[in-house]
Amino acid sequence: MSSLLSGLRSAGLSLGLMSLIVGGLAAEAAGQSLVAGWHSDLDEARRASRETGKPIFLVFRCVR
Amino acid sequence: MRREFVCARITQMNDVDIARFEFDYDTTWTSFLLDADLNIYSRYGGRDENVAEGRMSKESLLQTMREVLDVHAQRRTLKEMAAAALVHPGPPEESRPEDIPLLRDNHEGCIHCHQVQEYRLLQAAHDGVFNRRLLFGYPLPEGLGLRFARDHGHRIEQVEERTPAARAGLRKGDIVTRVNDVPIHSEYDFRWALHRAPDETVLRITVERGKEGVDAEPLIVEVVPTGNWRQTELGWRKSLRSVPFPLGMLGYALGKEETRTAGLPPDRLAIKVLSVRGKGLAQNVGLEKGDLIIGIAGRSDARSYDQFKSDLLRLYEPGDQVRLHVLRGERELDLTGQFPDWHTTDTSVP
Fold it and tell me: Which pTM does this prediction carry?
């Protein structure tokens, strides 16, 4: 969790924006890995999108 | 709101279709809102020279997400052509970073976003097709004379007088919904539409005018960009180091104390020349080791070393006469010399 937050901060994102992106996920994950709720494979996300009918929110967060 | 979307995160550019997922690769965070068939509803992100998050806010991201949910639902009820008009134009064919020959031949491992842009610049230089236009991507709305509300993203907050936006009749409060064939749900959508527009162009901008969501009539205005509307500060960009610009010197910007010690006001441009090496701009204008550059084309406000390089690239191109004001010992000199041809011997990016 702290490493993800520091990563987002190093990417220059505000606390407000970070909380929007990771906040809901933190509650949802409830003890699970924070990154688990985010697909790291676009094809997987597309399958999930087809199954659920939801659009995809795809983030490119380059890690330097 | 997040639960209304399938979320995905990509942290490297290997094998990414950069023709479809085209964005400003000097930035470290960008997002796309799309459907399962990779039709892009909106791009969200972008930055300027000040701070990485200066063009984003929680409120504007939520605004974009709400609008995308509406469009996503609406498209299901539309026929193919009408549905297609609600998404960003797609590329004619795929393209990947590994298709750039210099990157493919010289790079191993993780490909960072900025490296895509750097290899593009190097490749263009090696192919003899480099031009300044490649440096000034994703123009800011201010280049047309307007500024968007930060808490909304595409509602006009301010229109400067005597600018292309003002001449076209755009007003504070207008919500921009389309630029040419690009639907707009964020400031980054607007910048992408400008990015892909030709240099000599008339932008057809659709706005909703009136109370938001109520009696808002679509109105199309034509904006004629003028001057250096694409140009933005380059100093923050990592790709600046890969611009095929033979400056031919090493130097640094003096700090405020050092500037004062040199007998100059602390807000004065003060670039110290540490060495002049090889063919390049420094040799062309006659700079010498120890010179202090205190003016460029009549301007003298304090700049970092990278901002100084950015100024040179914004003001001049090959063949132009560069004008520098220099302090050499006790003497002030005006030096002029030719801006060199684009050239680099680099074939890889650090």
Answer: 0.89
